[in-house]
Each structure stands twice: as structure tokens, then as C-alpha cells.
Amino acid sequence: xxRLFDLILLIIFFPFWGGIILICxxxxxxxxxxPGFYSSIRNIGDDKNININKFRVMKKDIDKKLNRATVLxxxxxxxxxxxxxxIYTNFGLxxxxxxxxxxxxxxxxxxxxxxxxxxxxxPQNVYDxxxxxxxxxxxxxxxxxxxxxxxxxxxxxxxxxxKERLELETSYCSWAKTNYSLIVDFKIIIYTVFxxxxxxxxFTFGEVISFLQ
Length: 213
Fold this sequence. Notes:
By secondary structure, this protein is mostly helical. It has one domain. 47% of the residues lie in helices and 9% in strands. It contains 10 helices and 4 strands; from the N terminus they run H-H-E-E-H-H-H-E-H-E-H-H-H-H. Helix 2 packs antiparallel against helix 4. The chain is globular and about 45 Å long. The two termini are 19 Å apart.
């Protein structure tokens, strides 16, 4: 049912999200130059890696200077780079502001590599560190397909520790395997849009956990 729900939403809203991707891609290359997209190899579980695409919102080759291997932070394994002009392009800041960066991954959802709602796909080195630090829960975040948004996005990455984020991801995966409801997925998607547009405040950890009960 989850896969069917994803496909129905993608097909119904294709003119909307497809149009946004096309328009933003054109503006991105006109204002910031090629490439308009940024490609990255990400782990999606079961030792499988896929190539995911997102809009290039950072300055060229910044990923070679700022990544999990170069930015060492013992307190945070998930890499949350500050959104500012020293890292991001001017147009990239706007794409980030309105949550457009990840939209090209809808094509990964269409071919079945991802879902709309689920744990985010991760760089292999980030996942390897998570497995080492949280061996009992890190793997469980892949019990359902990775997604564009999920419970952690409703709280906000800056308000969650690594363990809290993993707990939200694994709680969702466990729930989706046993008690899945498309209504909950739809709520997560709608609330994500509202939060990105500034129409809704971020939820607390406890509030998003209650979605699954």
C-alpha cells in the first residue's frame, strides 16, 4: 500500500513538482552555472548504494572541502552544515529556504529506489560511523525504504541528537512494517510542506512519536 500511495501522489501532482524542478533547474544554471544538479552516492540499506540527485545549492566543489571526513564533530555524526553564504550559492539559499533541494529525488521514488516518507539515505561513511556507535538501532532505520522526508524533518535537524534522530527513524520503520496507514504518511508530507513554508512551527520529539500511536 505504501508503494501505491507514493505512485498515486507522484502521478497526481506531477505537473506541479515536475514544473518546479524544470523551472528551478533552468534558473539554477542561468544564475549559478553548471551543473544544475548535484549527484551523490548514498546508502539505502542491505549494503546497497544508489546515486541520488538534488539541486546544487552549494558553491562548486564545496563537498570536497566540507564532508564527514573533513568536518570532525564527535558530538554529531549526521552532518548538518550551516546554511549561509560562505557555503551556499545565492540561488541555492532560496532553494533551501523553500525546501526544493531534494525534489529531484522524486524520480528515485518513481523507479522504486526510495519512498516519499522514510529515513534519509546516507553517505556510506556516515552510516558506518552510526553502526559503530549505535549497533543496536542504526541498521533498523533501513527496515523500510529511505525517503525524502520523515519524522526527524518535522522536528528539525538542529533540535535532535544522533540517537534521537535514529529513534524517530527506527520507530517509523517499525510502525510502517506492522501498522502502516497512508493517512499518517499524508500528514507527515503535509506538515513538512507547512513547516518549510513557515506556516507551521516545528514539532517536538514527543509530538511526532505520537503520530505512530
